Amino acid sequence: MTTMHPDVEEILFDEEKIAEIVRNMGRQISEDYKGKNLLLVSVLKGSLIFMADLMREITVPCAIDFLSVSSYGSGTTTSGEVRILKDLDASLDGKDVLVVEDILDSGVTLSYLLKNLSARNPASVRLCTFLDKPERRRVDIKADYIGASVPDKFIVGYGLDYDEFYRNLPYVGALKPCVYSHKEE
Ligand code: PRP
């Protein structure tokens, strides 16, 4: 039985449910990328746990790479500014790129990123997100693979943070508003 962190008001997906979602995503991706030149691109830091789980559910050959972007300060709302803090190690030439994200929120980060990666001569670029928060969308973007949709609450755990903490919670939960309301930007 999962013990809930005192700052969490509700568990949205427990470990068992997460494993089931990721297994299904891995199965679908493995079917779709048969015979392709799959490169998984993990967007740090939030996606690290999802990436580690997802890649082990993928049964076709794949390579991995990482990049880090920044669009948020320590608050809870996006500033709209996107910067690449750590770029990929290798070229995307001829690769079937699948961007792996923990959450698609306003879409600002991912729409910038997909444009940026598409300009590097890949064979294809698609987006896989574990969580989708469609209510918050500010730009027109849809993921090709979505694990689950979440309500417009502050989501933490399974890689997702508030002010860099809670990433290590093994479940996806909603943070109690009193924890972040005094810092909302
Ligand atoms: C989160 C998430 C996406 C982005 C999505 O990252 O991992 O990269 O925000 O938000 P958007 O759709 O509103 O652009 P964050 O900037 O919190 O960094 P982190 O992954 O290091 O936690």
Write the layout of secondary structure elements.
Elements lengths: L7 E6 L1 H18 L5 E7 L3 H10 L5 E10 L5 E9 L9 E9 L3 H11 L5 E9 L12 E5 L5 E2 L15 E4 L1 H4 L5
Helix pairs in contact: 1-2
The protein binds 1-O-pyrophosphono-5-O-phosphono-alpha-D-ribofuranose.
The site of 1-O-pyrophosphono-5-O-phosphono-alpha-D-ribofuranose has 18 residues, from strand 2, strand 3, strand 5 and helix 3.
Number of domain modules: 1
Mean pLDDT: 93
Can you tell me the overall shape? globular
- What is the name of the CATH architecture? 3-Layer(aba) Sandwich
User: How far apart are the first and last residues' alpha carbons, in Å?
Assistant: 35 Å
Rg over alpha carbons: 16 Å
Task: Write the CATH fold name.
Answer: Rossmann fold
Strand order of the largest sheet: 4-3-2-5-6-7
Beta content comes to 25-35%
Spans of at least 5 consecutive residues whose pLDDT stays below 50 are none
Structural class: alpha/beta
**Percentage of residues in helical conformation:** 10-25%
Task: Please tally the helical runs, counting DSSP H or I stretches of 4 or more residues.
Answer: 4
Pattern of helices and strands: EHEHEEEHEEEEH
Multimeric state: single chain
List keywords for this structure.
185 residues; alpha/beta; Rossmann fold; three-stranded antiparallel sheet; 4 helices; 23% helix; 33% strand; globular
Report on the structure:
With about 180 residues, this protein is an alpha/beta fold. It has a single domain (about 15-155), classed as Rossmann fold, CATH 3.40.50.2020. The protein has four helices and nine strands; from the N terminus they run βαβαβββαββββα. It has helices spanning about 15-30, 50-55, 110-120, 175-180; strands at about 10-15, 40-45, 65-70, 80-85, 95-105, 125-130, 145-150, 155, 170-175. It has a six-stranded mixed sheet with strand order 4-3-2-5-6-7, sandwiched between helices. A hairpin with a 5-residue loop joins strand 3 (about 65-70) and strand 4 (about 80-85). Helix 1 (about 15-30) crosses helix 2. The longest helix has 18 residues, at about 15-30. The mean pLDDT is about 95. The chain binds 1-O-pyrophosphono-5-O-phosphono-alpha-D-ribofuranose.
